[in-house]
Write a structure and sequence with these properties.
This protein is mainly beta. The protein has no helices and 12 strands. The model has no long low-confidence stretch (mean pLDDT 92).
């Protein structure tokens, strides 16, 4: 399967292949894995100031762009990233679109065919979530 570009910024490209997302460019000599999911990746965005990346598959992964830049590992915790809605398998939260609203907030469209369909605002630092619709 070919890789595809989800988002871009001045320094980076956010790419994906099926279940993993990589960040290319900037100070990285080789692609850095910023998210892995047990299901295909759907969407993502790069912060306007290049401080974080958010990707969506089954739930979301917020990856903070600061050293030591450790690669994301599925179902593991780290100060390098936070996850939301995964691995809680009781939630059907599959993002279809992610856009940045301000320096700390992303707006996420959840699958319109799921019981949790809606538009949610998520604070990338606190994970505070507000359902907008």
């Amino acid at each position: 399967m070919k890789k595809a570009v989800l988002a871009g910024s001045d320094s980076y490209k956010l790419c994906f292949r099926y279940e993993s997302a990589t960040l290319e460019g900037g100070q990285f000599e080789k692609p850095l894995v910023v998210a892995e999911f047990p299901f295909p990746l759907e969407c993502g965005c790069i912060d306007f100031h290049e401080k974080w990346v958010v990707t969506g598959g089954q739930g979301i992964v917020i990856y903070y762009l600061k050293p030591p830049f450790e690669p994301h590992r599925l179902a593991e915790e780290s100060l390098q990233w936070k996850t939301l809605w995964y691995p809680n398998k009781s939630l059907n939260m599959f993002p279809e679109a992610i856009v940045q609203v301000d320096d700390e907030t992303v707006r996420i469209l959840i699958d319109v065919n799921s019981e949790n369909a809606g538009v949610y605002d998520v604070n990338v630092y606190t994970l505070e979530t507000i359902k907008r619709m």
